Amino acid sequence: MRVLFLCHNHPGLQPGGTEVFARGLFRALREQHGVEGLFLAAVTGAHRELRPGTLLQGIGDAPDEALVWLGHFDRFGLAQPDTYGLASLAPVIGQLRPEVVHIHHLLQFGVETVDMIRRAAPRAKLVFTAHDFFPLCPQEGQLLTTDGRLCPGPSLDRCQACFPGRPGADFVMRELEMRDVLGECDRILTPSEFARDRYIAAGWPARKILVMRNGIAAAAPTPHRAAPDGRRDRFGFFGHVNRFKGGLVLLEASRRLSEAGVGHALTLHGGAAYQSEKFMEGFTAGLAAAPEARHRGPYGAAELPGLMAQVDWVVLPSIWWENAPLVIQEAFLHRRPVICGDLGGMAEMVRDGVDGLHAPVADPAGLARVMRRAIETEGLWERLVAGIRPPVTIGEAAAHHHALYREILGRQRMARAA
């Protein structure tokens, strides 16, 4: 089986959850199921300089992984006007002759890439994974209003409230184009029931949308830290530091705990690249006001077990719905209970009172109360640890995807035989 994977970046340059999973899935399909093909990641000048002679670049030593430099992109319309760059991909795709093209994001590639693939590989089956809500929401795919309120889904009035300078026709045309282009896909996958429900509520075809859980590389859990006094009061944040991930909420919750005399330690692990000056000013002020909080900066995948060994709880204070956060899988792999928001994909993954605790979203006082309960309730941490189920492995995810590819290809082959 020949498969082409498209992702909006490469985990070697930007180790986000989608990038890590997509490349891990590609490798698992290759190693466990004999799949051949190409993992193609889009990059811009923020990650790699444009090199003369070609828009395609190698990365590392992998012969089946490559980068394509696409420096022009319209985030509102998920459009890629660089037709020269896209045209350079057509011969590569034509030569590969993929049977399945799996698109893991439209960022950088744009909707035009789907049309180009249809021309370059007309017999290929198309699969799209909606790792987030970009096709539904022009506000960075967050389903979060510009003033920080949760959005139940796209509508003309709600979208215009976030983009008051745009005519209503822009939103209508965007919605029609997303449905038209992605409607060409043979399957649309979501990593959570919550996301599937959101797409169906927005009018997408339920018959094409399938929940397919993301997987994580198998590894031995890191041991829990020794706590002779039985007090489990060390909290960790893992992920990119930005407004949506709720770092400011977490810092304020920590400040409130300190003010109330509740001993604890909070460590935030993650970079803060590409953030606004205003956000960074608020983050710096929040750190200064929370005496028990520390920001340790970016970390690599190899460092994660050692960092997990220092914490009792993983906190996910995101202020948006989330979909299927990688950090929850990482926490459960290392048998750390998770404290997260009480809605969206994160609440679907974390069972309140079973393997973690739910807290009200964007509510520092509410989060502080839950963190205090986590510290002071005797036996709670041990009970939640016992309730943690191992996350889906990347090998299991690869087996499920391979079965899906075979199913949709089998239908095509049966049609040809008939």
UniProtKB/TrEMBL annotation:
Gene3D superfamilies according to UniProt: Glycogen Phosphorylase B
GO molecular function, one term: glycosyltransferase activity
SUPFAM superfamilies: UDP-Glycosyltransferase/glycogen phosphorylase (SSF53756)
Glycosyltransferase subfamily 4-like N-terminal domain residues: 15-216
InterPro entries listed in its UniProt record: Glyco_trans_4-like_N
Keywords on record: Glycosyltransferase, Transferase
Protein name: Glycosyltransferase family 4 protein
Organism from which the protein derives: Roseicella aerolata
